[in-house]
């Protein structure tokens, strides 16, 4: 062994081993800290999301009832779904809800946010007023609108007073009028929530862009289309996703407006109402309700994938 | 089954309850001595604690009755303890299902035949006929039969408790205004439909009916609801079709509004109270409710027997015993005690309902009139109970089967499908559910 090697060995031997080992142990110990901090959240997610989802998935392929675990029936529940008129009605109504409500939810709050984004007391009053329905329960809102849209409600009475109608408008009994009334209530309730999100996004748009647009002689509409909308494009995409999910899962508004029945002849049932009807109560058919839930999950998943794909494609083409 | 003792309805007790209070106290004080003869409360060597579940009965009106009842039982059976639990009746099926699924169903529970059927099917309830073969003689035959489920092998899964039925109420002011005879109120469905059509012609802004027929109405019309084995629904036969066609014809002649196709019972009551409806099928609570909340209508009230072509309908509430209770002897004995003749009589007087115990309807309370309208309604309703049938099949779900039936009838009335197809769809749906639950 050369003298230099001896020196190196001696240096290594003389090196302060204790602190290094303690450091390693400390590192080892701290490595678990992030997991420990994650644990409460993880426990909640596993208990209330992952396990119920797994259970729903299992139930969908069984003939389980509330009081019986059930046996494996393969795709039987899904075959039954295809022959169930109520399911097809519910799927149509929930899908229509997405198609009709989402565009309004993406555009109207943006217009409102643009109008009330300026400072001032009056603007503050409008912002608060528009946000007010958000803090109300959908059941309360539904009840208010039920009494307004009733055959003898405020809307019909007002229209009759001004001679606009000879017979009451069947807002709550006609299939399509009821569905559109519920959509109107949903939009009315959601405007404030999405408006607040847009207000935050508008604050991030560079003010000089508006100055430049003004110098170029752009009017209000041109500025809105060329500066505001591109500036909140990613927020619009987010709101599109959020409102699509919410619209497909609509329950409270339709439930209350139909008096909890699903409308005349059950023609206003939505997916969540059908799940509630089949999956609750002593005679609940949890297997069948699980199958409807799974279909709903797949439809929503597909909806989100399509939206994300469209956004990515748009991002690439810009 | 609809819960019958919810707060709004209890307002209907009024003077009847006041008079009954004295009798109730007397009954509660002296209840246990004769209990041995009339069922329950006589178990030698009973001990331990059980839980007794009721719905919406712990309040100023009923708490003294139940506390006295429990004290009597515990005094007569030293070493026993009854823990009384009461919950709001809203969503009681969901609460029961949660308890049953968790294996924590109370030892003795107040419930209707529909809930009892489902729990019995799951093996959660005691067959009381098997546990006590002599019990059957202590109750009215029809009450006992309504808790005997042919579809589950003929076992009896609950002691019959109280019954409820009521007369038909008519707004005679509407009858007079629209040219109908106030002295000849309808008593059968044919007479009712004829009157409804005449009313529609004379007064288009008023209606006779404001709700689709429910399954018990099919029974009252004379439609066979299930086969003899209670394994299949059969209400789509020619008589069922004829019944729905009368509703369709009435709708076409403007005698039914579109709202009526979707209305539940509460809307029907509201329409009657608002003076838009000429007929309301009532319960024993309805008269007091109308007197308190719709005095104008009360002044012009015509009262007749319940509309039926066959036997009139009644509802029943029972006490079931948990099959997995750790103290079956005590639970069974206590359930019999609560439903024995003496205690049922006291409760019937307090709650303005009818006892299911054998012989109780012969009490002067149910046979002698005193000129008061309340007494007249009670006596006539008691007569009706003697003929009445619990038409609602226990296997018919009030949440899904009932909704489907109403929806299918509405579609037929709107012309979306034929009446035959609508009833067939409803029957197929119910039979599918019935088969799947086996």
TrEMBL record, chain A:
Instruction: Give the transmembrane region(s).
Output: 32-53, 96-116, 128-148, 176-201, 232-251, 288-310
What sequence ranges are listed for the domain ABC transmembrane type-1? 91-307
Where in or outside the cell it occurs: the entry states: Cell membrane
Q: Name one GO cellular component term.
A: plasma membrane
Q: Which Gene3D superfamilies match?
A: MetI-like
Quick one: a GO biological-process term for this protein?
transmembrane transport
Main localisation = membrane
Q: Which InterPro entries match?
A: ABC_transporter_permease, MetI-like, MetI-like_sf
Xref: Pfam families: BPD_transp_1
The name under which this protein is listed is Sugar ABC transporter permease
Species for this entry: Cellulomonas triticagri
Q: Tell me the lineage of the source organism.
A: Bacteria, Bacillati, Actinomycetota, Actinomycetes, Micrococcales
UniProtKB/TrEMBL annotation, chain B:
Signal peptide residues are 1-27
Q: Pfam families, alphabetically?
A: SBP_bac_8 (PF13416)
Q: Which PROSITE patterns does the annotation name?
A: PROKAR_LIPOPROTEIN (PS51257)
| UniProt keyword list | Cell membrane, Lipoprotein, Membrane, Palmitate, Signal
* Lipoprotein recorded as keyword: yes
InterPro entries noted in UniProt = Bact_solute-bd_prot1 (IPR050490), SBP (IPR006059)
Gene3D superfamilies cross-referenced by the UniProt entry? Periplasmic binding protein-like II
Its protein name is Extracellular solute-binding protein
Species of provenance = Cellulomonas triticagri
């Amino acid at each position: 062994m050369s003298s230099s090697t001896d020196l190196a060995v001696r240096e290594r031997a003389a090196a302060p081993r204790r602190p290094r080992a303690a450091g390693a142990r400390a590192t080892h110990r701290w490595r678990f800290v992030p997991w420990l901090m994650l644990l409460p959240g993880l426990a909640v997610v596993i208990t209330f999301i992952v396990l119920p989802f797994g259970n729903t998935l299992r139930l969908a392929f069984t003939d389980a009832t509330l009081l019986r675990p059930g046996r494996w029936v393969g795709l039987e529940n899904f075959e039954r779904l295809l022959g169930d008129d109520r399911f097809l009605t519910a799927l149509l109504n929930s899908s229509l809800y997405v198609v009709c409500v989402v565009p309004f939810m993406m555009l109207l709050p943006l217009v409102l946010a643009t109008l009330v984004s300026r400072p001032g007391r009056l603007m503050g009053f409008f912002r608060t007023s528009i946000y007010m329905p958000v803090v109300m329960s959908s059941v309360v809102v539904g009840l208010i609108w039920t009494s307004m849209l009733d055959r003898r409600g405020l809307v019909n009475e007002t229209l009759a007073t001004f001679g606009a109608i000879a017979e009451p408008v069947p807002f709550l009994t006609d299939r399509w009028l009821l569905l559109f009334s519920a959509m109107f209530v949903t939009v009315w309730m959601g405007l404030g929530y999405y408006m607040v999100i847009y207000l935050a996004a508008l604050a991030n748009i560079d003010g000089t862009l508006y100055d430049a647009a003004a110098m170029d002689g752009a009017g209000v509409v041109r500025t809105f289309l060329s500066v505001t909308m591109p500036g909140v494009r990613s927020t619009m995409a987010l709101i599109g996703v959020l409102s699509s999910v919410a619209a497909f899962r609509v329950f409270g508004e339709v439930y209350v407006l139909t008096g909890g029945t699903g409308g005349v002849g059950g023609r206003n049932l939505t997916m969540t109402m059908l799940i509630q009807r089949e999956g609750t109560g002593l005679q609940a058919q949890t297997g069948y309700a699980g199958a409807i839930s799974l279909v709903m999950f797949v439809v929503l998943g597909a909806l989100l994938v399509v939206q994300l794909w469209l956004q990515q494609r748009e991002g690439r083409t810009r | 089954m609809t819960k019958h003792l919810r707060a709004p309805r209890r307002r209907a007790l009024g003077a009847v309850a006041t008079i009954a209070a004295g009798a109730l106290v007397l009954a509660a004080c002296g209840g246990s001595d004769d209990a041995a003869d009339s069922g329950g409360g006589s178990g030698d060597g009973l001990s331990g604690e059980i839980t007794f579940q009721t719905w919406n009965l712990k309040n100023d009106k009923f708490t003294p009755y139940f506390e006295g009842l429990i004290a009597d039982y515990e005094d007569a059976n030293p070493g026993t303890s009854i823990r009384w639990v009461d919950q709001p009746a809203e969503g009681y099926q969901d609460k029961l299902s949660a308890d049953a699924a968790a294996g924590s169903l109370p030892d003795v529970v107040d419930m209707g035949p529909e809930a009892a059927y489902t729990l019995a099917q799951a093996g959660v309830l005691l067959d009381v006929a098997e546990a006590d073969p002599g019990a059957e003689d202590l109750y009215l035959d029809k009450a006992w039969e309504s808790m005997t489920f042919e579809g589950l092998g003929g076992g009896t899964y609950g002691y019959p408790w109280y019954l409820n039925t009521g007369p038909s109420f008519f707004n005679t002011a509407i009858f007079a205004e629209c040219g109908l005879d106030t002295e000849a109120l309808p008593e059968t469905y044919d007479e009712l439909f004829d009157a409804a059509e005449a009313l529609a012609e004379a007064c288009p802004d008023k209606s006779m009916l404001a709700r689709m027929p429910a399954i018990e109405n099919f029974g009252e019309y004379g439609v066979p609801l299930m086969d003899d084995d209670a394994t299949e629904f059969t209400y789509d036969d020619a008589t069922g079709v004829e019944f729905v066609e009368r509703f369709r014809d009435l709708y076409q002649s403007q005698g039914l509004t579109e709202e009526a196709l979707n209305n539940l019972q509460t809307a029907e009551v509201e329409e009657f109270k608002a003076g838009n409806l000429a007929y309301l099928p009532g319960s024993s609570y309805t008269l007091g409710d109308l007197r308190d909340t719709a005095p104008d209508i009360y002044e012009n009230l015509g009262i007749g027997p319940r509309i039926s072509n066959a036997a009139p309908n009644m509802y029943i509430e029972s006490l079931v015993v948990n099959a997995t209770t750790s103290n079956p002897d005590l639970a069974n004995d206590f359930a019999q005690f609560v439903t024995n003749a003496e205690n049922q009589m006291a409760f019937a007087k307090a709650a303005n309902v009818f006892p299911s115990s054998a012989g109780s309807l012969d009490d002067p309370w149910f046979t002698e009139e005193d000129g008061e309208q309340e007494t007249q309604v009670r006596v006539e309703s008691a007569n009706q109970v003697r003929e009445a049938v619990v038409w609602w099949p226990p296997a018919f779900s009030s949440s899904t089967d009932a909704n489907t039936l109403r929806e299918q009838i509405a579609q037929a009335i709107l012309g979306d499908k034929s009446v035959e197809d609508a009833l067939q769809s409803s029957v197929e749906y119910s039979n599918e559910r019935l088969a799947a639950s086996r």
